[in-house]
Amino acid sequence: MLSLIQADLLKTGKRPMGWMLLALSVLLVSATLLTIRFLIPEELPPEALNPYNALVMGPQFVQQSIGGLLIIVFGASLAGNEYGYDTWKNLLIRRPRRTPFIVSKWLTLVFSIGLGLIVLAAVSLAMSFGVGLLTDGGAGMSWGAALLTLLMQLVSLTVVGALALMGTVIGRSTVAGIIVGFVWFIFDGVMAQLPWVSASVKGLLFSVSEANLLTYISGQEAAYPPAQSVLVIAVYLVAPLIAAALVFRQRDIAG
Description:
Blueprint: H1 2-14, H2 16-39, H3 51-84, H4 88-92, H5 99-130, H6 143-171, H7 174-193, H8 199-202, H9 206-217, H10 226-249
Helix pairs in contact: 1-5, 2-3, 2-5, 3-5, 3-6, 3-7, 5-6, 5-10, 6-7, 6-9, 6-10, 9-10
């Protein structure tokens, strides 16, 4: 398993797509913070951007704008490249077990997203300091809330990427994974906004559960029990991995 993960990380590092998506995210964070600096008054309230607020602001903005779409493309490409270059047959002939290949792709996805969030958090903090948005504390976010928020961002983007990865394995192409990711992304968001959908059904949606946990982390009253949201998110986190592994186990040497 370790050798598979190392190989996947090496291949991912050599491919330009991941670095291009990260560079785009960094530019977006930088442009957003510069825009905010020029639009808000000179005198900031003390709770506006303490270091912990600044740490999560950049990653949070990327996640809520184009982050999900970027990760759909990235997650689909992790397995899609193997189909595109027809390399599965060279890999599968060396190992009788199929599940470790999918687990390795999933762990590579988690590692890549985590690394990207660390870079974006560092850029957000440095840019906030550089353009004068950073204050010296106040009643802003605590370090614990900041870490939990970053963890939620990691989980959220992993779910989106894992669904795209699952779609790629099922459809045997990057395009199939992107379509599955986009359809789920849009469906989940639309269902959360429809007034005729019951609250109990909305509580089972990923976007609602994520927002509910973030509300709880911020110290406000959550609409649903936090334990329920954690359970729902856990299902969304592992279900695509299990589905992709089960499908892949039935495939021939071409994947």
